Structure formats: structure tokens, C-alpha cells
Amino acid sequence: MIAYCLLMIFPAVMIMAALSDVRTLTIPNHLSVILVVTFLPVAVLAGLPFESFLIHLAAGAGILVVGFLLFMTGTLGGGDAKLMSAAGIWVGVANISTFFLYVALIGGALAVGILIYRRLPTAAIAAGPAWAFRLHDKETGIPYGIAIAGAALLTFPSTELYALVAG
Asked: Has this prediction a pTM greater than 0.85?
């Protein structure tokens, strides 16, 4: 029962990260830290084999290295790289290709949607919230945390960790 309650942290934090990215175009570091720190007790309580545990950590570390390289080139935001890495720990290697496919599909749809949104006249969105006005600005980035969170939420139910806790 405790593992099941802890398991709910993953979707809650992913949703908070996506909302934060939409509103402020940043993903707070503490959200990624929460995901990394809570993975350990969930894995232990769920009975995740030690080898699988290490492989999950390796997935997150590998994603962090690639994410850091993409951040250095300006391709990916730092918060996005950290969130993707933390999500990779929970998703694990067995589902990583599905996770990345979802990130690409959702991210592509998000980018197209925001590009269309940015073609609207400024007057059409001027009365809206500040975050909507910020997203309309062509000089700002795209809140890719939405794609990462969506992909993680779609992928997670098919993971070994989820099956151990929910099964």
C-alpha cells in the first residue's frame, strides 16, 4: 500500500513540471530531485530486482549525459534535460524507446500548435493570462516539459516498476 501511494508521486510531479513549464518556461530543479529521490523507496518496496534498479539508474544517467550535450548546443533546456533524465529512471531501459517516441510525437505536435498560436494577432490573446502572452512571443522557447511529462505518463503504466506495484 505504501509503494502504491509513493507511486502516485511520479504522475503528480510530472504534471507539476508540465504546468510550471507552461506558466514560467522553467522546470524547477526540486521536481527532478523529488523524482530521483522517491525512486529508491518505490523500487525497494515494489521488490524491483537489484539488477533492474541499477539499469534504471543507468538509463537516467545516460539520458542526463545526452541531455547535457543537447543543452550545451542550445537544443534542449537544462530543466528539460534533468526532467527527462529523472523520468528515464522511472521508465527504465526496456521502455526508453517508447518514451522517446512519445516525447518526439507530443513535442512535434506541441511545436506545431505553438507555431500556429504565435500566428494569431496579439490583440486576440492580450486579455489572457501572462503565460499565454509569453508563449505567443516568437522569441521565447517552447515548454517541452509538456511533451516530456506526457510521454512519461503514457509510458509509465507499461513499465516493470508499475507492474510490480499495481499488479
From this structure: yes
**Alpha carbons 162 and 121: distance in angstroms, whole number:** 45
**8 A C-beta contact, residue 124 and residue 87:** no
- Contact status, residue 70 vs residue 64, Cβ threshold 8 Å: no
**The total number of residues written for the chain in this structure:** 167
C-alpha cell at position 81:
534535460
Rg of the chain on CA atoms, in Å: 17
- pLDDT tens, per residue, the chain with 167 residues: 676 788 899 999 999 999 999 999 999 999 999 999 999 999 999 999 999 999 999 999 999 999 999 999 999 999 999 999 999 999 999 999 999 999 999 999 999 999 999 998 887 777 788 888 888 888 899 999 999 999 999 999 999 999 998 87
Number of domains in the chain: 1
Residue 45, amino acid: L
- Cell reading at 26: 522553467
Cα-Cα-Cα-Cα dihedral sign, residues 85, 87, 92, 97? negative
Q: Which domain holds residue 31?
A: 2-166
